[in-house]
Design brief:
The complex is a heterodimer. By secondary structure, chain A is an alpha/beta fold. Chain A is 36% helix and 29% strand. In chain A, a hairpin with a 2-residue loop joins strand 1 and strand 2. In chain B, helix 8 packs antiparallel against helix 15, helix 11 packs antiparallel against helix 12 and helix 21 runs antiparallel to helix 22. The chains are: A alpha/beta, B alpha+beta.
Chain lengths: 221, 832
């Protein structure tokens, strides 16, 4: 199967008041198209940093990252933003919806940024698919946590991304709602043939993925 | 594509109420700037026009010969109104008496500005008329009627022609001060002058050509005509023409300018704060947009579009509001402003629009442009904010904007750079002080009750933000204090310029033997008079062996002809004591009972413009004889105090050998003016110059100028209030979030409000301390360097500044927090 994400000798260090701190080092990994991969590990092990590097949200200190046909490490923010817009979708623990936009407007946003004239049509379709047909014109503050996360998922799939990155997508939700959200993500993943990379603490969730990668103190184990 | 996203975001932000504060700040700032600019411009024009009545025109060419026709033709082409006068000295005869008079012949268009005031009988109040005497008619000044023994309607002779007395002349607008207008005034029609045959070759004549019209046309005319005038002609406007008023006008103009400038800076700060808050609230938005594929350039496009739409909207709305507010202010103040304001022209509207937009560009755009640097990974780690690189760019925007605006307003790069570097230095010192003050608050506050501890701990925690906030509060309060202090000093100075009961009549041509008896007559009638100064005419003919005419020619050739000419004929006096309002700036005044070689004291401008120094040997020609003198001192003279003032004063006894007359000045109330008749009847050779009307006019203008600058002060106060509000609002989100958390933990509303009140009060207090300190220093500099005033420390300020700051910020801050503190904390946490 075709490789969609690949890293070679990936490392990240940051300067702190107590000197340089290594967050990640020597990460070599490969993720195939349509795979679902869970990144697991203890708090502070570097899971979230790895996810943000893979998604092109942050830049590594050393090593290389390939996303699809692109090598992210050679790119500036301008180019990385274009790649994100083209092939990446996100679901975050804290939902990250724009508070001034309604549910449908939030879902339309990525398509609008691409200049897609069918933004509204696509957004309505996906929003119905996640079961929020009655919530189109509600603002995030008028929605429950589970509903907000469903809007976020709809936004991620509306942009027909090739890779979906999810950072603790159930972290802010109760068990029952969390389970529904997980079901939804996996359903859609299958439906759209998306590659899924998610960071989680939740063992059952990790078990539903094709495979798990464990990070310990910044290194793959 | 980003354009449409920008429009949607803008519309959605507007719907969600995110834009209200920014837009309101922008509109209020632009409208304040427009209001002030418009108002200041109209006031400036009005004051200048009102003062033009001192000249009876906007510009005057004064010459001893008729000027070339092409100058008058040019004035006609430029659409200027014109009038002409001709002044000369002549005897006027009644049946049995004669009097030496100063005749002024005027054409039918005179005066162009101001009005002639006439009456039917001498020494009574008159009524204004539009133009001067008709042919065949003359108007006499009040005191000429008793001294010639005539009444209105009688016949008088000037030269070989006879005229009937048509009116008693109470006031002519351009009577002027000084001693050029010796002799009582006779006004006649210019067409009658040839009939009198008194104007002969060699007569001493003064031709005056008066011009009035639009400022732009006058400027063009002045630039065109000035180089074409001969050496015997001089062109001037009200500022050069009327010393008593020119100074006051200059200072008022500078004050209005300073006011406008401070208004712009305050508006800029308000805009910057509102934009900063808007930008802060969009950090997360931008991070999300970026994760969704928005590029930095795309973010720029989005926010520049938002800015342009907001800016255009605010500028147009703000200008309209400013226009209306200014019109309303004028309407309301109409009964208080005794002058008619000219209609606002297009220029101030454009000025307001441009100022508004530059303000937006340099203060609102930078915080928005900063958004491009937000890193997308912020969606996962909120503590990762923007990078520091963009900050430098945004600050430089604001700096260029401020410098540009200041330069544009003041037209003086040096002044701009001085104010700017002073401001930067003050900001640095203030930051250090603010930081120190905050630390001292912590030590002091540790033992206090829990609202205190909460407040002071909060201040300490947000140390950097609070230092910035103290700076902004301090700066706003400082600018207001500066304006208030300068205004107070100016008004006091103006009031002191011509004190109550200042002498309002000059008596000249008093013979030495009449001095004693006249002094006695003053005493008997209870008239307060100044010292009697001996006076004689003379001129400087050489300096250190070099001929003065030659030196004047050299100066003219070097295009350095400003200031008094060295070789001009002047009134000379001698005195033992330095006149009260004079101040020695070089050399020494002669000691008491001085009897050495002849010494002389020169006025500063005369000395400076002719490069005369202490120790130079001057030779004077006085009534055909030569007299050598050494320059002993240089002194300043208060020309606008309406007292006898001299360019040149000799040491006592130096002019003893020269025949001289005496002069003095004295004060008469309106109802005491008949005393002049007694005086003139008994001493017919002396001349009295009445300056009471002039003094009244100066005082009236000063009252108007005072009112004008007070109005501007009020407008600036409004701007200042806006800055404080914007600044409090800008910091509110963070504070409220903290306090909402504290409230969920069980703190009462009272405790939270109390702690907010203490926090804002303390910030206000520190800001007040800094503002007081800063304004004292700035005012010292402004008053001594820019306004040429004497600086006095203001002890009341050291109480008012800190206490006022504490109350103002404390009350406004607490009130602003009141509504949100009353909403349930969970709602607050959800919305922030």
């Amino acid at each position: 199967m075709e490789t969609i994400i690949k890293t070679v000798g990936l490392g990240k260090t940051v300067s702190t008041s107590e000197g340089r701190l290594t967050i990640l080092k020597g990460i070599d990994l490969e993720i195939k198209k349509s795979e679902s991969v869970a990144i697991v590990g203890a708090s502070g092990s570097g899971k979230t940093t790895l996810l943000s590097l893979l998604a092109g949200l942050d830049t590594p200190t050393c090593g290389e990252i390939f996303l699809g046909e692109y090598e992210l490490t050679d790119m500036d923010e301008e180019q990385r933003a274009k790649v994100r817009g083209q092939m990446v979708g996100f679901v975050f623990q804290a939902f990250q919806l724009l508070s001034s936009l309604t549910a449908i407007e939030n879902v339309m946003l990525p398509a609008e940024l691409k200049g897609d004239s069918r933004a509204q049509e696509k957004a309505s379709e996906v929003l119905r698919r996640v079961g929020l047909a009655h919530r189109f014109s509600h603002y995030p503050s008028q929605l429950s946590g589970g509903e907000q996360q469903r809007v976020a998922i709809a936004r991620a799939f509306a942009s027909t991304a090739e890779v979906l990155f999810a950072d603790e997508p159930t972290g802010n939700l109760d068990t029952a709602t969390g389970a529904h959200i997980i079901d939804l993500i996996f359903e859609l993943n299958e439906e759209f043939g998306t590659t899924l990379v998610l960071v989680t603490h939740d063992a059952p969730l990790a078990d539903r993925c094709t495979r798990s990668i464990t990070i310990d103190s910044g290194e793959l184990r | 594509m980003h354009f449409s996203v920008a429009l949607k975001l803008l519309w959605r932000d507007w719907r969600a109420g995110e834009l209200t504060l920014l837009l309101v700040s922008l509109i209020i700032a632009v409208s304040t700037v427009t209001t002030i600019t418009l108002f200041v411009d109209r006031l400036q024009q009005a004051l200048l026009r009102e003062s033009s009545t001192f000249l009876a025109a906007d510009r005057v060419i004064s010459s001893s010969h008729p000027i070339a026709d092409d100058i008058l033709i040019k004035a006609g082409e430029l659409g200027l109104q014109q009038a002409q006068t001709l002044s000369f000295l002549s005897m006027v005869f009644s049946d049995d008496r004669a009097q030496f008079t100063a005749v002024k012949a005027v054409d039918d268009y005179y005066p162009l500005r101001g009005k002639l005031i006439v009456s039917d009988a001498p020494f009574v109040r008159g009524t204004p008329v539009e133009s001067g005497p008709l042919p065949g008619e003359i108007w006499l000044e009040s005191r000429l009627l008793p001294s010639l023994g005539v009444d209105k309607g009688d016949i008088l002779d000037i030269g070989v022609a006879s005229f009937s007395i048509g009116n008693v002349l109470v006031k002519e607008p351009d009577r002027g001060s000084g001693f050029n207008s010796v002799g009582p005034r006779v006004l006649m029609n210019l067409a009658d002058v040839p009939l009198t045959e008194v104007v002969q070759p060699g007569s001493r004549l003064t031709y005056r050509y008066l011009f009035a019209g639009e400022v732009a046309a006058l400027d063009v005319f002045q630039a065109w005509a000035k180089p074409r005038l001969g050496v015997e002609a001089r062109m001037f406007g009200v500022k050069e023409g009327a010393a008593g008023i020119g100074n006051a006008l200059d200072r008022a103009e500078r004050f209005l300018l300073l006011g406008g400038l401070l208004g712009v800076i305050l508006a800029g700060i308000a805009i910057a704060l509102a934009a900063q808050r808007y930008s802060l609230r969009h950090y997360d938005h931008v991070a999300i947009l970026k994760t969704l594929g928005a590029t930095p350039a795309g973010i720029d496009t989005i926010f520049v579009v938002i800015f342009l739409i907001l800016g255009t909207l605010a500028t147009i709305l703000g200008s309209c509001i400013g226009f209306v507010v200014q019109m309303a202010a004028v309407k309301i103040l109409e009964p208080l402003i005794p002058i008619e304001l000219p209609n606002p022209g297009l220029r101030p509207v454009v000025l307001g629009l441009v100022t508004g937009f530059v303000c937006l560009l340099s203060f609102a755009l930078p915080p928005l442009l900063k958004l491009r640097a937000i890193v997308p990974v912020r969606v996962m780690r909120r503590d990762l904010g923007e990078t520091g690189i963009a900050d430098r760019m945004t600050y430089s925007f604001a700096i260029i904007g401020i410098i540009g605006l200041m330069w544009w307003y003041s037209q003086d790069l040096r002044l701009t750079m001085l104010i700017f570097s002073g401001g930067v230095a003050a900001t640095l010192v203030m930051s250090v002080l603010a930081y120190g003050l905050l630390r001292s608050g912590r030590i002091f506050g540790m033992q206090a009750g829990s609202a205190w501890r909460l407040a002071l701990a909060g201040m300490q925690r947000r140390g950097q933000e609070n230092v910035l906030q103290i700076l902004v509060f301090g700066l706003a309060i400082m600018l207001l204090l500066i304006l208030y202090l300068v205004r107070t000093a100016l008004v006091e100075e103006w009031r002191a310029q011509i004190p109550e009961n200042a002498p309002n009549h000059f008596a000249i041509n008093i013979t030495p033997e009449d001095v004693g008896p006249i002094r006695q007559l003053f005493h008997e009638n209870g008239v307060a008079s100044q010292p009697f100064y001996p006076m004689t005419r003379g001129r400087i003919t050489s300096v250190n062996g070099q001929l003065s005419r030659e030196r004047d020619r050299q100066r003219e050739a070097a295009a350095d002809s400003d200031g008094p000419r060295e070789s001009s004929g002047r009134n000379l006096t001698w005195a033992a004591d330095l006149p009260a309002d004079n101040r020695i700036v070089a050399g020494k005044w002669w000691p008491e009972n001085y009897q050495g070689p002849v010494q002389v004291s020169l006025e500063k401008d005369l000395a400076q413009s002719n490069r005369l120094k202490v120790g130079d040997e001057l030779v004077f020609t006085i009534q055909g004889r030569k007299l050598a003198a050494i320059v002993a001192s240089i002194r300043t003279v208060a020309w606008d105090n309406m007292q006898p003032n001299f360019y040149i004063i000799f040491s006592p006894g130096a002019l003893g050998d020269f025949p001289s007359t005496y002069m003095t000045s004295f004060f008469l109330e309106k109802h005491e003016k008949l005393f002049l008749n007694t005086l003139l009847n008994r001493y017919p050779t002396m001349t009295v110059i009445e300056v009471d009307a002039l003094i009244e006019q100066i005082q009236r203008i000063i009252t108007q100028v005072t009112l004008a600058i007070e109005l501007v002060l009020v407008l600036i106060l409004v701007s200042g209030g806006l800055v404080l509000l914007a600044s409090i609002q800008a910091s509110m989100d963070e504070r409220l979030k903290q306090h909402a958390i504290i409230r969920t933990l069980g703190a009462s509303q009272k405790l939270v409000l109390g702690s907010l009140a203490i926090e804002f009060g303390a910030l206000g207090f520190f800001a007040g301390v800094l503002a007081t300190f800063g304004s004292e220093i700035t005012v010292y500099w402004l008053e001594t360097e820019i306004f040429q005033l004497d600086y006095k420390i203001n002890p009341e300020l050291w109480v008012l500044g800190p206490l006022g700051g504490m109350l103002l910020i404390g009350v406004v801050g607490t009130l602003a927090a009141l509504k949100v503190v009353r909403t349930p904390p969970v709602t607050v946490l959800r919305e922030l």
